Amino acid sequence: MYQKKKEKLYISELIDNPAVVYPAYYVLSLTMHKNEMLHTALIALHTFDFSYYEVPKSYEDIFAMFTSGTFPIYKEKYIVGYFGNKMMYLESNGWKGMPATEDIFKVENWLVC
Q1: Which of 108, 43, 110 shows the shortest CA–CA distance to 82?
Q2: Is residue 49 part of a domain?
Q3: Which is it for the CA torsion 106, 100, 78, 83, positive or negative?
Q4: Domain residues for 62?
Q5: Most buried of 15, 89, 90, 112 (most Cβ within 10 A)?
Q6: Is residue 1 part of a domain?
Q7: How do the pLDDT tens digits run along the chain, 113 residues long?
């Protein structure tokens, strides 16, 4: 079966002096590696500059971001995407399925822009 090529996107390629240095890179598909919306969210996360983000008023705000191709931030720790009808969060080694815990249903744990 054909495996899509993945590359490491190093935070140092996006930011000179990140406030959060871990993880130092993310393993992403070539498409995600070039996605400017994802870059913007990663920069916000690694600089702790959430000036363009706010707590959503409702869950509709979160899903509006998914629909527009942008990425909300969960608990000021994870970038979240919506792929194949699944919410996924980004870790160093790639996208992982997001477990449906009680915290995920608390709007105050999310940041949208």
Answers
A1: 110
A2: yes
A3: negative
A4: 6-111
A5: 90
A6: no
A7: 566 789 999 999 999 999 988 999 999 999 999 999 999 999 999 999 999 999 999 999 999 999 999 999 999 999 999 998 899 999 999 999 999 899 999 999 999 99
